[in-house]
Design brief:
Elements (H helix, E strand, L loop, with lengths): L19 E5 L3 H11 L4 E5 L11 E4 L2 E4 L5 E2 L4 H8 L6 E2 L7 E5 L5 E5 L4 E2 L2 E2 L5 H16 L15 H9 L1 H16 L8 H4 L3 H8 L2 H9 L8 E4 L4 H13 L3 E3 L4 E6 L13 E5 L4 E4 L1 E4 L3 H9 L5 H8 L8 E9 L11 E4 L9 E4 H4 L1 H8 L5 E8 L13 H16 L8 E9 L10 H12 L5 E3 L2 H4 L3 H22 L4
Parallel strand pairs: 1-2, 1-16, 2-12, 7-18, 16-22
Antiparallel strand pairs: 3-4, 5-11, 6-11, 7-8, 9-10, 13-14, 14-15, 17-20, 17-21, 18-19, 19-20
Helix pairs in contact: 1-9, 1-17, 3-5, 4-5, 7-8, 11-15
Length: about 500
């Protein structure tokens, strides 16, 4: 029998190939779940509300180049994404970022700002060696000595540390928190370190703390012999290659992807009609009134959509209560991609990009020098001109009222150009802009806030009362593809187990 999804069925009246699974949401979670379910012969239909699948993996055409306008890499921890890439036959497309790494934009002692290389050998900005030259450059001798006190403090115990900001401040002091961790947390999660759950933002850190007895020692354990940039990988041509390969694989397995197909409601069919697999359990009603009946339903849509669909189910008071406990999603962010002809950038003067500490005169929270970071993009950009460069600026932090949403396209490009000039330390002019694109994102930043994991588990437990229903997606799994992929695979596995237990397989 399937794992905890309703009463046991004793009648097996249909062949597996007659079964139907509807997946709402064509992001990576939905595509992965659909592919895994289709592998055993179940007919799968994916319903994507927008005109393109991929979710947080997206691409944009700018100055004749196709570049990522969403996530541009994946975390290698756990090996789940790497296994998927291998299964899709993309091993030869895996690329590593330039190990030169990113820089930091920080306030200086004189009330101005300085731009320095990001210390290497850390996790989320937390250093493994407070006295490393690059760490001392960011902290000064006083900050380095304060961070070193972490080594002589009482040993931390496993599972007792939840708040990332408080952990860093207590163990290593405010300079490490404000000058190293805060810029990274803002760049990755659009959130304050005080709002981040240690186990979600830095998986494995709590266990490493117990083993090492200090925060810096735990970071050293987590990194091991890892080289700069080794914690992430990308794909030649951009991460959207993963989406394209998933779509092709689902189609090969007989699945159907329908874009421009928003869902209005879902209905659990009457119990009398679902006493066996002789009749479908679920009805999905599209915005245009079309209905699709299915034996299994996987909700892998964005948080707002999934919440609305789940909350309308009859008898779902427990589920609604659980949904109310899920912390608010991340701040909306906006990405601005600029293609420039700028000889001053040929030397990659700021490495692969810059993370910006709060309080800076720079409005962007981060900038990526994309062709400096990825060699494949440098090759393609160079084919269009000797001084062609691609940069990407990110705007939006949790609680930041200074939103870019009110800016027109020209105003936003001007803001991005001004910020880039400050970050690179060289004037960049409108005449150097070959092309530009803006990409707004709402609710797609990885979720790692305190209380999120417990709330997500309550939602999953409440969903179990509805037989044949699964929920997946970043708003529950959090922390990007490294969590989204195994979570979606687990949801599909529960469907597969139910199919095996309740039908006669081919």
């Amino acid at each position: 029998m399937s794992e905890g999804h309703g009463p046991e069925r004793h009648v097996s009246e249909r062949h597996v190939s007659e079964l139907h699974a509807v997946v709402v949401g064509g992001g990576v979670a939905g595509l992965v779940a659909a592919r895994e379910i289709a592998k055993i012969g179940v007919r799968v239909t994916i319903l994507e509300a927008t005109d393109a699948a991929g979710g947080a993996l997206a691409q944009v055409q700018v100055a004749g180049l196709t570049v990522d306008s969403g996530a541009e890499s994946y975390a290698t921890r756990g090996g789940h994404v790497a296994a998927l890439v291998h299964d899709l036959g993309l091993d030869d497309q895996i690329v590593k970022p330039n190990p030169q790494g990113a820089w930091l934009r920080l306030p200086d002692a004189a009330g101005g700002e300085l731009t320095i290389p990001m210390p290497k050998g850390g996790v989320l900005g937390i250093p493994s060696n407070p006295f490393a030259d690059d760490v001392r450059l960011a902290l000064g001798w006083g900050g380095a000595w304060r961070a070193y006190l972490d080594r002589v403090m009482p040993v931390l115990a496993i599972g007792r540390v939840h708040n990332l900001g408080r952990l860093v401040e207590r163990r290593m002091g405010r300079k490490v928190l404000e000058r190293l961790v805060w810029p990274v947390a803002g760049g990755v999660y659009s959130a304050s370190p005080y709002d981040l759950e240690v186990d979600l933002a830095a998986p494995g850190l709590n266990k490493a703390l117990t083993r090492a007895g200090s925060l810096s020692g735990a970071i050293a354990l987590l990194r091991g012999d890892a080289k700069p940039g080794s914690a992430v990988s990308g794909l030649r041509g951009g991460m959207y290659r993963l989406v394209e390969a998933l779509i092709d694989s689902v189609a090969t397995l007989g699945g159907e992807l329908r874009t421009g197909a928003p869902v209005a409601t879902i209905e659990s069919l009457p119990e009398a009609d679902t006493a066996s697999l002789a009749a479908p359990r679920w009805r999905t009603v599209l915005a245009d009134g079309e209905t699709l009946d299915s034996d299994f339903l996987v909700l892998a849509a964005p948080e707002s959509v999934t919440r609305t669909l789940l909350a309308e189910l009859p008898g779902s008071e427990t589920l609604r209560d659980a949904l109310d406990q899920v912390p608010d999603g991340p701040a909306p962010i906006e990405l601005v991609t600029l293609v420039l002809d700028a000889a001053a950038l040929d030397s990659y003067p700021r490495g692969t990009g810059i993370l910006v500490a709060p309080g800076s005169s720079v409005r962007a929270k981060a900038m990526t020098h994309s062709d400096a970071k990825w060699s494949w993009l440098a090759e393609r950009a160079a084919a269009d001109g000797p001084h062609r460069h691609v940069i990407r600026l990110s705007y939006g932090r949790q609680g930041d009222a200074d939103s870019t949403a009110a800016l027109g396209d020209a105003e936003l490009v001007a803001q991005a150009l001004a910020d880039a000039s400050l970050l690179f330390g060289t004037p960049l002019t409108a005449e150097q802009v070959v092309d530009a694109a803006r990409t707004p994102w709402r609710g797609t930043v990885p979720v790692a806030t305190i209380g999120h994991r417990q709330a997500a588990e309550r939602v999953r437990e409440a969903v179990e009362q509805f037989e044949g229903l699964e929920v997946a997606g970043a708003w529950l799994s959090g922390t990007g593809l490294a969590s989204v992929v195994p979570d979606a695979s687990a949801a599909a596995s529960r469907v597969r187990h139910a199919v095996v237990a309740e039908t006669s397989m081919p």
